[in-house]
Amino acid sequence: MSIGVGFAVAFAVRYFGQSHDRKFAILSAVLSLAGCVLGNYLAAIAVSAQHYHESIPGMAVALLPRLPQVLSDTFNPMDVLFYAIGVYFGYKYALVPLNRPAADEAPSAT
Questions:
Q1: Are 10 and 28 in contact (CB under 8 A)?
Q2: Domain for residue 104, yes or no?
Q3: Please, which pLDDT band fits residue 1 given cuts at 50, 70 and 90?
Q4: Inter-residue contact 29 to 56 (CB < 8 Å)
Q5: Do the beta carbons of residue 83 and residue 2 sit within 8 Å?
Q6: Are 90 and 82 within 8 A, CB to CB?
Q7: 110 lies in a domain?
Q8: CA 49, CA 67: separation in Å to the nearest integer?
Q9: Is the per-residue pLDDT at 98 higher than 90?
Q10: How many domains does the chain have?
């Protein structure tokens, strides 16, 4: 999942930033890390909601003030590896240029 998060974030940053500069790669890496952490938080909420027979949105609102505690209680050392993979792919693929036709070029109709 962390590779998918890295790819998705890198693509979005390249597309909306309309560039592949280093600053966008750093932004992509930070957003990829945030996406991976958010994924872990949502997984913890889903498990907690199922355990307590609550709705997922209700559990998300109830546990939001305890976000750091939830993340630390559910932390696994393997998470560091997945975070690093997400950050790496987010950074690496944000540097790859998008192949877009120039504004003055009309796409060829064949």
A1: yes
A2: no
A3: confident
A4: no
A5: yes
A6: no
A7: no
A8: 15
A9: no
A10: 1
Range list of β-strands (E), the chain: none
Which residues have CB under 8 Å from 22's CB, separation 6+?
95
pLDDT in tens, 3-45: 899 889 988 888 888 877 889 999 999 999 999 999 999 999 9
- Domain holding 13, by residue range, is 2-94
Report pLDDT digits (tens) over 61-82. 999 999 999 999 999 999 999 9
In a domain, 109, yes or no: no
Cβ(10)–Cβ(87) under 8 Å? Answer: no
Side-chain-side CA neighbours of residue 47 (13 Å):
9
Structure token digits, residue 13? 């940053």
